[in-house]
């Protein structure tokens, strides 16, 4: 008999409604979206335009989805998209995006239009989880007829600039819980065996296999290296199972996988991956690494618009 590798479900059998309900019943609120995110956005309203682009109704809770825009949006300026919190448990993606707006967004006034969605998945943010209440990963759901309302709402927000966006940076983390919780849960949900992996120690980026833009990726890596350490390749020359194509850089087929960084036709796209569990990194460093990545990505795009 196969030993159960996750406390929910039957090994080898995908979850049904009963297993998803059992999983959902175990999720508890651990922090507040209103306190940590909405209150910070409120303080930014005097300097930037704030738009509500959707609302998540997960009874008994409801979450307004907010984005921050350049107040003086101009059609003749290049557009830059920053997203965070697609995976709610990846904390520095949310707080790094907000910190960037507070500290640096004004520097680009008159040079770029900025659109920042700092917390795409607030339910998951509060529960420090990867999935939404339906046990769906929003970051595999950015496609037509998305099953994840978080993903669908963001795609609707971005749709008017989908072809005109110059740069999109999506802020993520790779954590020890990826290996201890989220990968085993994914395997259990899908009725597949759980394959052990290796968590890289350090920052890396994920470019687009179809449009890798290596100089852009390296500009982001170089900026972040001043703040925190860059993840080395493992013994196979890989990071999380993908070949390292340059120091700290791997590539994924973004659109094919339904990843957030593929939702526009931007020339420059990247997903950041900070490692908050490293003994060599503090939460403040992780936030600062995200900020450095955003600034470097915008600066490179402005310097190389075509």
Overview of this protein structure:
With 306 residues, the chain is of the alpha/beta class. The protein has one domain (36-174, 200-303): Zn peptidases (Aminopeptidase). Helices cover 32% and strands 19% of the residues. An 8-stranded mixed β-sheet has the order 1-2-4-3-5-10-6-9, sandwiched between helices. Strands 7-8 form a two-stranded antiparallel sheet. A hairpin with a 2-residue loop joins strand 1 (49-58) and strand 2 (61-69). The protein is globular. The model has no long low-confidence stretch (mean pLDDT 96).
Outline the secondary-structure elements.
Blueprint: H1 17-25, H2 33-44, E1 49-58, E2 61-69, E3 79-84, H3 91-104, E4 113-117, H4 122-127, H5 149-158, E5 165-173, H6 176-190, E6 204-208, H7 214-224, E7 238-239, E8 242-243, E9 249-252, E10 268-274, H8 283-303
Parallel strand pairs: 3-4, 3-5, 5-10, 6-9
Antiparallel strand pairs: 1-2, 2-4, 6-10, 7-8
CATH homologous superfamily assignment: Zn peptidases
CATH class: Alpha Beta
- Assign the structural class, choosing from mainly alpha, mainly beta, alpha/beta, alpha+beta, or little secondary structure: alpha/beta
* Overall average pLDDT: 96
- What Rg do the Cα atoms give? 19 Å
Largest sheet: 8 strands, mixed
- Compute the number of helices: 8
The share of residues in extended strands comes to 15-25%
Total strands: the figure is: 10
Described by its quaternary structure, the protein is single chain
H/E element sequence: HHEEEHEHHEHEHEEEEH
Helix share bin: 25-40%
Level-2 CATH architecture = 3-Layer(aba) Sandwich
Side by side, the strands of the main sheet go: 1-2-4-3-5-10-6-9
From the N-terminal CA to the C-terminal CA, the straight-line distance is: 59 Å
GO molecular function: hydrolase activity, acting on ester bonds; metallocarboxypeptidase activity; zinc ion binding
Keywords: Hydrolase, Metal-binding, Zinc
Cofactor: Zn(2+)
InterPro entries: AstE_AspA_cat (IPR055438), Peptidase_M14 (IPR000834)
């Amino acid at each position: 008999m196969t030993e159960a590798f996750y406390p929910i479900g039957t090994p080898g059998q995908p979850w049904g409604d009963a297993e998803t309900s059992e999983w959902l019943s175990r999720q508890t609120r651990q922090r507040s979206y209103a306190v940590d995110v909405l209150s910070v956005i409120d303080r930014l309203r005097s300097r930037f335009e704030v738009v509500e682009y959707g609302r998540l109704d997960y009874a008994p809770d409801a979450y307004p989805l907010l984005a921050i825009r350049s107040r003086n949006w101009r059609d003749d300026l290049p557009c830059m998209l920053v997203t965070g919190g697609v995976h709610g448990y990846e904390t520095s993606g949310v707080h790094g995006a907000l910190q960037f707006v507070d500290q640096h967004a004004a520097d680009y006034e008159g040079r770029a239009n900025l659109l920042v969605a700092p917390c795409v998945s607030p339910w998951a943010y509060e529960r420090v989880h990867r999935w939404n209440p339906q046990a769906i990963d929003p970051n595999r759901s950015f496609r037509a007829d998305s099953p994840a309302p978080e993903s669908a709402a963001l795609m609707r927000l971005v749709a008017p600039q989908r072809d005109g966006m110059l740069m999109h940076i999506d802020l993520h983390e790779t954590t020890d819980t990826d290996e201890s919780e989220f990968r085993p849960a994914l395997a259990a949900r899908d009725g597949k065996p759980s394959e052990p992996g290796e968590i890289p120690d350090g920052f890396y980026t994920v470019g687009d296999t179809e449009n890798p833009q290596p100089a852009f990726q390296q500009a982001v890596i170089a900026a972040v290296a001043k703040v925190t350490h860059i993840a080395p390749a493992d013994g196979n020359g890989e990071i999380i199972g993908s070949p390292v194509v340059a120091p700290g850089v791997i590539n994924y087929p973004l659109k094919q996988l339904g990843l957030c960084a593929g939702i526009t036709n931007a020339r420059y796209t990247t997903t950041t991956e900070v490692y908050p569990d490293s003994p060599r990194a503090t939460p403040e460093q992780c936030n600062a690494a995200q900020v450095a990545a955003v600034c470097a990505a915008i600066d490179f795009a402005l310097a190389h618009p075509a």
